[in-house]
Every structure is written in C-alpha cells, then in structure tokens.
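Please check this record.
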Amino acid sequence: MKTKKIKVKKSDLTFYSQIAILSVLILVLLFNVNFGTNSNVILDSSSQSGVSASSIIPTGVPEIYGDELGVAYDFVSANDPQLADQTISFLSSIDRTETLEGADLERYINILYVSHGGISCEYCCGARSIIFENGQAACGCAHSYAMRGLAKYLILNHGEEYTDEEILEEVGKWKVLFFPGIMQGKADIMASKGISTDYISLTSNDYRDIEKGQTSGGMVGGC
C-alpha cells in the first residue's frame, strides 16, 4: 500500500505559525499573572506574621536554681493543670516563709517596684505592682505570690550570680507561663510596632496595657 503524501499549503504554515506564537504569548501572560498573584500573597502573609509562641514560651529547666528547687518551666502548662498549680503553690510558699531586710529588701523593691515601672499581675488584679513601695505584697493572687517567692529566693541564695535585671527577667519568664495566650497577643502587637519582645519589655510595666482591647487567651493556674 502506497503512502499518500499530504501537501501543506504555504498559507496553512503561516496560519499554524501564528497560532503557535499566540499560544506562547497566552502562556507567558498567564504565568506572569499567576506569579504576580502568588507574590502578593507571600508579601501579605509575611507582613501579617506575628511572634511565634515558641519564641516567647520558656522551656526546660532554669539554670542555677531549677535543679535546686526541682522546678522546670514545662511544669506550668495548660496541658497539666494539677502540676501547674503545684508548681505555683511551691513558689508561693517561698514568699510566705521568707522575709527580706536591709540591702536585700531594697534590692527586692528595686526589682519588682522601681525598675521598668515594676512588674504586676494586671490580669488578676489592678495593682500597680505585685508589691507596694515598702516591699509588702500588693496583690493576693497565686501568680503574684509565686513571682515574689522566686525573686526572694534568687536574692537570698544567688544574689551575686544574678543582676537585678536578670532577676526581673527570670520573674518575667514565669509570668509568660502564667498568661501564655495574653502574652502571645501582647508580643504580636509589640512586634508590629517595632518594639522588642524580650522578657522585661514584654512583662514589666514598660508597655503595660499596650494590648488593651484585644482578644486575650486564658491563664494557667488560678488567681
């Protein structure tokens, strides 16, 4: 059987060439539109990104005092309310049993009341700080007892190893654990304004109420 040769007219070749060119142009146009759309999505998601929870929630065992006291940051978690309450109660007991005098008391007041406007438990009570200017307790919630207890312990037992700023920072870490959802929201707002989210900036009174009016998460441990 002989194969019949098909002749293609010159006009047909021109037509097919035009179709091919047009197809290529359409593909290029579609690619550019799609790329531009994806680029906008990436930029938008980047601009809306907040501070990750893992970057502000302390984990593991605190250096120096963690093993001594038998506590870990991970003990305070909504996943284990009983262990969280036990840990908070243990730290609170230090505040109830230890009394500071002289230079230790002055340092205590500077850390919790004076430096950075002090540190408060504003989500449980409206006190300006967890202590008054004379060093007496200003808030009766369990969280504030725990924070005062830790500060006292570090001053009495590791006063030469920690500076005042470092003690305030350590107290701040536990405050983040007590109010993880609220602190996360506050960190997002601070980051959006270009403010550092280090523990002192986040938990002291430096930027207190910056998150006011925003939806907040719950607390770990009761007031």
